Amino acid sequence: MTRLVSTCVWRVDEGLILALDQRFGEPVDAYVNGSQVWLRDDGPGGFTLEWRLHPVAGFVRPAPVSTGDLFPAVALALAEGLPPPAPLAALWDGLEAFAAYGEEVEPAPLAAAATRALGRPPDAAGLVDHESIATEWERTGGHISVVDWLLQQLQG
Fold first, then answer.
1. Rounded Cα distance, 112 and 115, in Å
2. What does each C-alpha distance from 28 to 16, 36, 40, 53 come to in angstroms?
3. Longest dimension (CA), the chain
4. Across residues 53-81, what is the average pLDDT?
5. Is the pLDDT confidence value at 156 over 80?
6. Residue 2: its pLDDT value, please?
7. Cβ 111 vs Cβ 121: under 8 Å
């Protein structure tokens, strides 16, 4: 049986990276696949949201920046008006926010809470099937855009 999850999605741009840095600081976790993660109690009723900056399809980490230092290096460069270690379009597609521990929440209250936390509304919000996206991502070895798949479900 398909489990649908409420989620919010933002396409990546310089303003999004700067908002994440200014409002959330450094990620609590960074993965070798390029994902950057924040866990924050921003959800409706104060429950924890997972904020995940999704990498582009086929992400390759720019040398010599480590995975853990990538987001801070990019955010600092953008804040100072300098070129980041790689163009944003080569790093991340977008940001997703959803209930971190499976709490049930409707899309509208989630979008409202996420907008308050980040300071900008999502590009899309609604219900998605994370399992189908994860299956396709695994099948292709990470050569799909998770954000494109999320948006396809949200707009489809």
1. 5
2. 17, 8, 10, 12
3. 48
4. 96
5. no
6. 80
7. yes
